[in-house]
Amino acid sequence: MNTPSSRINPFVLMLDPEAVISAMESSRNLSGLRQRICRPLDKPLIPKTHTIDRIALRDHDAAIDAEEFMDSGIEFYAAAQPALQHAVH
User: Fold this and answer.
1) CA-angle at 84, arms to 79 and 86, nearest 5°
2) Residue 18 has pLDDT above 70, yes or no
3) pLDDT at 2
4) CA distances for 80 relative to 40, 71, 74, 84, angstroms
5) pTM score > 0.70 for this model?
C-alpha cells in the first residue's frame, strides 16, 4: 500500500482495509480534526408550531372561501375568438 498508485486507486484500498485503518490512525491531519458524534435519527430541536400554523392556514382558507366568486369572463373571450366557438360549451 506504499506505492502512489495503490494510494490513489480506491479498489486497491478496498482489498486492504487494515492498511487503510492504520494509515487513518497515524494521520496527523485526521487526528487534528474536531470530532463530534452525529446521530441523524435523533429528534430535531425544532419548536412545535403545528397548532399555530394550522390555525393560520384554516383562517386563510376561510377567508378565500368567503370571497365572492369572480367571473373569469371566458364566455366573452370565446365569443371574441371565432375559432373557439365550438370548443367552449
Assistant:
1) 100
2) yes
3) 59
4) 60, 17, 10, 9
5) no
3-state secondary structure the chain: CCCHHHHHCHHHHHHCHHHHHHHHHCCHHHHCCCCCCCCCCCCCCCCCCHHHHHHHHHHHHHHHHHCCCCCCCHHHHHHHCHHHCCCCC
What are the grid coordinates assigned to 42, written together? 435523533
In the chain, the amino acid numbered 16 is D
For 25-84, the pLDDT digits (tens) are: 898 888 888 777 777 776 666 666 667 778 888 888 898 888 877 777 777 777 777 776
Quick one: which of 20, 22, 23, 24 has its CA closest to 35? 24
Cell of 86: 365550438
Residue 37 phi, psi dihedral angles, 5° rounding? -95, 125
